TrEMBL record:
UniProt-listed Pfam families: MFS_1
Protein name: Multidrug MFS transporter
Organism lineage string: Bacteria, Bacillati, Bacillota, Bacilli, Bacillales
Highest taxon above the source species: Bacteria
The entry's keywords: Cell membrane, Membrane, Transmembrane, Transmembrane helix, Transport
Membrane-spanning ranges: 17-44, 56-76, 83-101, 113-134, 141-161, 173-192, 204-223, 229-249, 269-295, 301-324, 336-354, 360-386, 407-425, 445-463
Residue ranges, annotated region (Disordered): 472-491
PROSITE patterns assigned to the protein according to its UniProt record, in alphabetical order: MFS
Amino acid sequence: MGNAVAQQPQPKVNIKLIVGIMLAGAFVAILNQTLLVTALPHIMSDLNIDATAAQWLTTIFMLVNGIMIPVTAYLIDKFNTRALFITSIGLFALGTLIAAISPNFGILLVGRVVQAAGAGIIMPLMQTVFLVIFPKESRGAAMGMIGLVISFAPAIGPTLSGWIVDTFSWRDLFYIILPIALIDLVIAIFALKNVGQLRDPKLDIPSVILSTLGFGGLLYGFSTASKGWADPVVIVTIAVGVVSLILFVTRQFKLKQPLLEFRVFQNRLFTISMIITVIVFTAMIGASTLLPLYIQNARHLTAMQSGLIVLPGAILMGIMSPITGRIFDKFGAKRIGIIGLLMLTIGTIPFSFLTDQTPVPFIVIMFALRMFGLSMVMMPVTTAGLNQLPVHLLSHASAMNNTLRQVGGSIGTAVLITIFTNASISATSSGQGADMSLIHGTNMAFLVASALSVLALIMMFFLKEPPRVDVQKKEQSAESSGKHAKPASQS
C-alpha cells in the first residue's frame, strides 16, 4: 500500500461518513453482547427452558464472536471494505430478525449464532479501517471514538434490557436493534467506499481449524469455570484449547502467509501495550460482573438499580474516550496512561473493603473514578502499540488485539469469579451469614483486581514510545522499500 494512503486520507473518501457507518454497526454489535443478561429469566419462562440452556444464548454469542475474530485478518486482506462490512452488518441484521421472530429456543440460538458471525468481523474491520484512513497524528482521537463504543455500549445494555423486559417483551430487545442495523446496512450499500488495498492471501484450512479449537476451547472453558475448575468439561475444553493454540501458533511461524501474524509481538512496544490492554480490559469486565452480584445479591437492590449505579461511570468513560484520544495525539500514551492507571487503582482499592452499609453514592463515585481512569488507558495504549507497526500488519494487529481482549477478558473474569465464589464459600463455612459471605467474596476478588491494576501501572513505566516523527519516517521507509506484498485492486 502506498505511503499516501497511510499518511493521509484517500481522495474522494468521506471520512466522517465512514466513521459514522462503522461506529453505528459496532455500537449495536457490542450492545447486543450484554443486552440479554437481565432478560434471561423472562426468556426462560416464555420458552420453558432452564438456566443452563438459557446461558447458551450469551455463551454461544461470545464463542462464535471469538472464533470469527482471528479469521478477520485474512478477510480484511482478501475482500474489500465495502463488501466485508455489508456482509457483516447484513449477517448481524439477519440474525437479529431470526432471534426476534424465533418460535422456540433452537431458532433463537441460531439467530444468536448468525448475529455473532457478523459482529465478530465488525470490530477488527473498523479498527483496521480507522488506522488506514487517519494519519498517525490523529489516530488517538479516532481510536477514542472506538473506546466510546467499547465502554458505553456494554454498560447500558443491562440497564436498557432491564427496563425493556419489565415494560415490554424480551423480543423487543431485538426489534429495537434491528432498525438501527438495517438503516446502517442501507447507508453502507449506497454510501460506503473502499479504503486500503488487498493482498490476496491464501487461506490455510488447518490454521482455521486449530484457531477455532484453540480460541473456542479457551473461551468456552473459562466462561463455564463457574461450574468448578475440577469439572471434566472445563478441564477438557481448556486442555483442548491450550494444545490447539500451541499447534496454531507453531504453524503460523512456518507459513509464508499466516492466518494470524504472531510476528507482531517482535515489536516490544506492541507486546507491552497488548499486555496492559488485556489487564485493563479484565479490570473493566471483571468489575462490571462482580459489582452487580454485590449490589443485587448482598444489598438486595433490583437489576434496574444495579444498572443505574454503574451507568454514570459508563457515560463518563464514553464522554472521555474521544477526549483522551486527542490528548494522546499530543502527548503520547505513557503520561496519560500512568495517570489513568493511578486513578483506576485508587478507584478499585475501596471495593476491597465493601460492607453491607457502604453508601450507594460512594459506590457510584468510585466506579466512575475507575471508568475515568480506564478511558485514559485502554485506547491510548492500544493505539500506541498499533502505531509502531507497518500498514501491511495492521489487519493482523487489530485481529490480535481484539482476540486477546476477548480471551483475556474471559480468563480474567473467570479467575475473579472463582476467587469470589471460593471466598464466599469459605466465609459461609466459618459461620458468616449469606450476605456477609457474598460481601467477603466480593472484597477478595476486588483485592486481586487492585493488584492487577498495580501490575499494569508498573508495566506502563516500561512503555517507551519512540519520537513520533521517527516512527513516521520508519514506516515511510518500510513501505517505500516494498516489504509487504503487492496489493490487489480494491475494486
